[in-house]
Amino acid sequence: MRFVHTADWQLGMTRHFLAGDAQPRYSAARRDAVAGLGALAKETGAEFVVVAGDVFEDNQLAPEVISQSLEAMRTIGIPVYLLPGNHDPLDAASVYTSALFTAECPDNVVVLDTAGVHQVRPGLEIVAAPWRSKRPTTDLTAAVLEGLPADGTVRILVAHGGVDALDPDPGNPALIGLAGLQDALSRGAIHYVALGDKHSRTQVGTTGRIWYSGSPEVTNFDDIESDPGHVLVVDIDEADGSVHVDSRHVGRWRFLTLHRQLDTGRDVTDLDINLDQLPDKERTVVQLALTGSLSVTDRAALDVCLDRYSRLFAWLGTWKRHTHLVVVPADGEFSDLGIGGFAADAVEELVAAARGSDTGAADDAHAALALLLRLVDRGVA
pTM score > 0.85 for this model? Predict the structure, then answer.
């Protein structure tokens, strides 16, 4: 028996930094990743798809987001089991009980809206632990695993949330207990645990049977999500219960963080080369952590570089709390501009201000000197 394990689609997600047509393209890519599961299912012979929580970004969504998402699920063409998670819990405002969802939900889509066992077919069951609020007060898997028999039925636990062995907040009452999962696996009550909530592909424990699939399309920068963009194709031998997990990369977007020390014009040139060599710029988001000390000339070159690539990438900008660039006019940097009189005196005053301790005045002076350099370079001054 073979199925696809995925999670954290978060359809309807927006990223505040994406402007222009980048956000619609990113949203379309997230839907395309869902619709593309149909081709993967056909290629691999998968019997069904389980989505381990956070199918939607929120319970309050624009009608077109719901309709387009359901259409993407319809095209998968095999049963798709949706588990409500912390972003889209089964509360009073649940998207899953909305009039639009219930009216347009395709026949192949099943919401795992009750805790416990859901039969896929004789001999094969899904054990679901849906969220009914954004803040559960207990381990939701413990209740559905309690008393579950080891009777030869192949069972897949589908759950959402942090696992106590990995989570840095041991006081969270909703954490999933790894010991309980491993006990249910060892006694044969369940055979695989499909988890959602962690957006990077992650194996939990050492059994090879407990996995976070991660989000099929990246949702955050790589300092937070180290391994997104995957779905898992899972094989369970119904004769002996053995499990094999095959990871497939399906994501097309990248959110990158680049740390660079910039102290010379050569460093700026190297950054330019690095950015130029990145492929698929229209689907790449770049966050720059820049530190160092630059001359006004080199800072002006950096500004030109960043301006150019901000028009090529889906988004490019600085990570403000990790960026600290000092601009200090180099000796003689403004001595050969070919100007004199009051203009030369003004330049000297700007250089002095740029080297001063008044941060606001220094920033204004840097900007004025950089503009002067650009004007001179263009033959305007």
Answer: yes
